[in-house]
Amino acid sequence: MHMEKEKSWGDWIRELDDPAKTREKPEALDHITVLDVSYANMAGCFCTSTLAEFGANVIRIEPPDGDPARTFTPWGYMHMGTGLGYLNEGRNKHHVTLNLESEEGQEIFRKLARRADVVVETFLPGTMDAWGIGYRQLKELNPRLIYCALYTYGQFGPKAACGKADVDVVDQAYSGVVSVSGEPPEDPQNPKSSEVPTKQGNWMGWYAGGAWAAVAILAALHYRVQSGKGQFIDVSPAEAYGRCINYGITYYYGFKATIPRVGNYDVGVFPYTYFKCKDGFAFLSGFADPNWKALCTIINRPDLQQQFPTIFERLNVDNMKVMYKEIEKWTMAHTYDEIFDAVMDYNKNIGQGVVVPGRISSPMDTMKAENWWVRMALEKIDDPHYGEVTIANHAHKMTETPPRVKWICRPVGADNYYVYAKMLGYGSKRLEELKEKGII
Amino acid sequence: MAREDYFKWAESVLDPSKTFEKPEALADIKIVELCTLILGPSLPAYLSELGATVFKVELPGMGDTMRSLTPFAKFFNGAAMGWLKEARNKYHLAIDVRVEEGAELFKELVKRSDVVVENLRAGTMDKWGIGYRQLREINPRIIYIALNGFGQWGPYLERPSYDAIAQSESGEAWISGFPDKLPMKAGIWLADYYGGLVGAVGVLAALAHRDRTGRGQYIEYSQAENLMRAMDWTWLYQHFTGKCRERYGNRDVSICPADIVPSKDGEMVAIGAATDKQFQGLCQAMGKPEWAQDPRFATHLERLKEENAVELLEAIRNWAATKTYAELDQLASQHGFGAQKVSNGKDHFEDEHLRKRNFTYYVDDPIYGELYEEGIAPKLSETPGRIKWAGKPVGFDNEYVLKRYLGLKTKKIKYLKEKNIIGKWVDVPPGRKPPERWDGKSGLLLA
């Protein structure tokens, strides 16, 4: 005990939470069974990946010819018959097929749901209900069931029945985030086609939707521990992502104006942006008065501090442009490493105020940086079917029940024999019959 | 008819107007927050919407730096808008935890709580004697999450970080924006809000473990690593092809069609079809039903090929330019593809759908007055999320919390105030004190 106290904090905690030891530890959710009937929707798939990474037994149910999401992949690139977007979110799940449009398929689903803890689905609202396998019907069979439906416009409200499809780009557009992201026109008379509201490059709407769904499901699970009651959960990925907005509605309510697009500036913080440097781009900040003074000291421009002394001067967009140009003169004269060293040297040795430096990294550079491999944020795993792959792990390093990836994905229907035997006692003969009838 | 019946039923079980008649999922959970800015504070804010009691601990006087952060330095009734949204539902305490008696108070709170959330530099809490190493001795059931840029150990240990650095060093900025522009920083603090959100998943998973075993645990969490997890096919693509993922503007190169294009009436409209059926609907709407059978477009894998995608997206862009958003919206409903105009704060404020769903949420706050904000994301039938109040000035709830939860005597509280162990707001800079029009009483729980 005495020795332990003498360890530095970093060494002490690493011994307890190092992801290299993950596989020696138990899993938080290995008592939970999840049925995932997501269809052409990565929000549902990401939600159940997350639950599976924390240990849940996830049964991924696809139509007999596979989920269209298996073709969500850049320029149609396929790896062993599966697209890369889906391959990445098949994690730890058992993949079965089941035709939910057939009565026999619905009956099998009911049997599975009777013994499940969680159902996740992404059909147009009312689809599962019309098939007789919505929450309304399933709760009669299993009152402890937690049922989460994801759809852009949700399960109620004036737009819920609109029938429009849930696609990530649509969720991003409705969220409000796109309206404040991207470059404003340099010349308002002649805006370029790249100077428009801009989405995130990844499926950010779907990922935010999946994350909120996981939070809601886990909260419902905790409530069930005491109450014994399941419940119905309605998540709109657009709203889930919109909850991440800094201040859109309040600003409009308070000032009858909308937050403009200001490119890489921030209407609430300056400087807090990316600058060109000799060999790439550097991020620099210096917002609060002492931090601004620190930045001006580092770049040897005390005049700037005098010219823009308070946040009221620094949060004027016209002033931002002036300050930006002046700071960029300094960054352009240095390499990223020189900038980083100068700033960190100031922080360490002078330390009045803090300037935070960073690099804009291409994902290829990110993949080459040692840090992420040491911390196992990135990991190469050897999948039994798909071979060696590079994945990003969930960020949580946990002392007791860390998340983990055991396998990356499974082919369509690969686990039919295992899951149907284990859950329902179906043998080969029964499965052959179901196959012939097009049920699986 | 069946569908109408479904919507009636769904509304009846999810009806937000009945929220306060129902219980809360996390009503038994208490969280102590020692955080600044957004990454840390958003996590307890999310869980507070689901019922957790949150004690936000700030330093007396200035409090959280975030209290300064507001667009164009415009304050809303004395509150910084960057701070306001994540201040909801919390008890606001100001304790100087850097001195021993303050640290003792903090420990007393932790003894009676379930979760600790902090986002300080690695090792700071440990140095102050209130890190996980110390707190697990006084409360082995505690779930402790530390969120920051790069974690508690590793090559980047010394580096401070912000949201924008997580966006840039993960590669997220590089893959966002147009090819002829700089890598794009999101117009929101993406790595912070989304970081707090996925951090909450870890806390709730730990809670599920504790519900079964009684054991707490420590969670280390890097927001940059979290964004990397959300970058979908990036790592597999680079692994298999050896090529770097670049940025492609508003076009989704993995789902076709999916893009954002201008309508006749000047709206920017996201249009997408993720399945063959949705695509067939879009072809119908465009008056090109034959395209659904055209070998270039008949299957998704064909549509995704560069030359086919470029042609298809160009045709959609030209077609959309001849339709108003209302027409595109109506066609999308009729034919089942996706179409949605890029919405802003005004659109959200005026949207009856989002109001009905408690996303656009009305708060009648005793201190900051009436306001609307981005409200509740998930709708739960048994335990719906809610906002009870918007936020409080620095140290506003000191007396109430110290008395109700720690049982301190009035004399002791007075002593702590005199010794500046606890305290209230300063008048300058703005954002700390109550608004000008505050009557000196409203919102006070124990004077």
- CATH top level of the largest domain in chain B? Alpha Beta
Give the CATH topology of the largest domain in chain A. Rossmann fold
Write down the overall mean pLDDT of chain B.
97
Number of strands of chain B: 12
The N- to C-terminal Cα distance of chain A equals 58 Å
Describe the global form of chain A: globular
What percentage of residues of chain B falls in helices of 4 or more residues? 25-40%
Q: What's the CATH class of the largest domain in chain A, please?
A: Alpha Beta
Give me the secondary-structure category of chain A: alpha/beta
Looking at this structure, what is the CATH superfamily of the largest domain in chain A? Crotonobetainyl-coa:carnitine coa-transferase, domain 1
* Mean pLDDT, all residues of chain A: 96
Poorly predicted runs of 5 or more residues of chain A:
none
Q: Radius of gyration of chain B, rounded?
A: 25 Å
How many structural domains does the protein architecture of chain B include?
2
Share of helix of chain A, binned: 40-55%
Largest sheet of chain A: 6 strands, parallel
- Widest sheet: strand ordering of chain A: 5-2-1-6-7-8
**What would you say the CATH architecture of the largest domain in chain B is?**
3-Layer(aba) Sandwich
Question: What does this protein structure show overall?
Answer:
The complex is a heterodimer of chains A (440) and B (447). Helices cover 40% and strands 14% of the residues of chain A. In chain A, the strands form 4 sheets. A 6-stranded parallel sheet of chain A has the order 5-2-1-6-7-8, sandwiched between helices. Chain A folds into 2 domains: 241 residues, Rossmann fold, CATH 3.40.50; 91 residues, formyl-coa transferase, domain 3. With 440 residues, chain A is of the alpha/beta class. In chain A, helix 3 packs across helix 9. The model of chain A has no long low-confidence stretch (mean pLDDT 96). Chain B is of the alpha/beta class and 447 residues long. Chain B folds into 2 domains: 286 residues, Rossmann fold (3-Layer(aba) Sandwich); 79 residues, formyl-coa transferase, domain 3 (2-Layer Sandwich), CATH 3.30.1540. Chain B is built from 18 helices and 12 strands. In chain B, the strands form 3 sheets. Chain B has a 6-stranded parallel sheet with strand order 3-2-1-4-5-6, with helices on both faces. Chain B has a 3-stranded antiparallel sheet with strand order 7-8-9. Classes of the chains: A alpha/beta (440), B alpha/beta (447). At the A-B interface, helix 2, strand 3, helix 4, helix 8 and helix 9 of A face helix 1, helix 3, helix 7, helix 8 and strand 6 of B. Chain B: It holds the Pfam family CoA_transf_3. Chain B: This is CoA transferase. Chain B: Keywords: Transferase. Chain B: It comes from Desulfacinum infernum. Chain B: InterPro entries: CoA-transferase_III_domain, CoA-Trfase_fam_III, CoA-Trfase_III_dom3_sf, CoA-Trfase_III_dom_1_sf.
